Amino acid sequence: xxxKIESFDPCMxxxxxxxxxxxxxxxxxxxxxxxxxxxLRSLEKPNDHVLGVYEGETLTGLFVFLIxxxxxxxxxxxxxxxxxxxYEEILTWxxxxxxxxxxxxVFNPKNYLLRDLLRQKDASFEPEQVKMLLDxxxxxxxxxxxxxGVVPLSEEYREQYISLHGKEAYWTAEKVIARPxxxxxxxxxxxxxxxxxxxxxxxxxxxxxxxxFVDEAYRRRGWGRKLLLAAVAANRPKDxxxxxxxxxxxxxxxxRSAGFVKAEGQGNLTVSWRIGE
Length: 277
Prior knowledge:
Blueprint: E1 2-4, H1 12-19, H2 32-39, E2 48-55, E3 58-68, E4 73-81, H3 84-97, E5 102-107, H4 112-120, E6 124-125, E7 129-134, H5 136-142, E8 150-152, H6 158-164, H7 173-177, E9 183-190, E10 193-201, E11 206-207, E12 209-214, H8 223-235, E13 239-245, H9 249-257, E14 260-262, E15 269-274
Parallel strand pairs: 4-5, 11-13
Antiparallel strand pairs: 1-2, 2-3, 3-4, 5-15, 6-15, 7-13, 7-14, 8-9, 9-10, 10-12
Helix pairs in contact: 5-8
């Protein structure tokens, strides 16, 4: 049975137990800030649906879904369960209520229960990602690093940024521009031409680069590192993390050169499911 969660107080034992389980811990709850933002404050957010799956009076699954009806988009913000029937029930609920919506799931790569169920539904799997954290000493060094040619986004370069930006992700250039409370944007300029960009969150104590891109003709010239270091310097004194495909050695080398180190056991898997299709 699925019920709407009205208070987390009766659920904290369940939440704490799952967060300690290496197979079923949720990577979106890796620290205190994420616990607050992604779980505890979800009851206050109008587009967040907080649901419990129960067997009798026993909680077997707890889920938070961001659901944007007008965009037919769903994102699993939190998914906590180690009971296959709980996952089956919540996926059936999505299928019965949100046919045709796109649903994105970000979860622990060791969570074989959710992984296998989504495979059965022919969902689209992205490569597994590893989490990297910025060393604080590197953050301090970034303030003195050479970032010449990198500037914050301004109206002068708005159209160039939009033209350069990826079009497939949920956070398009237009959506990023519309949310200065959430994102900062830096551009790499070569002779007045935008040749790369980085979108980075700015509203958390631990921010992350959402997208880093350099035009193919300008790669291997140091622009990626300059963009990253400019974002790191602007983010001080806050912390920073990022996610990178586990087999993307060039990107991992770039991030290491800027002072990021792997956070073992904190990777994730992203899966997209077009519900009912």
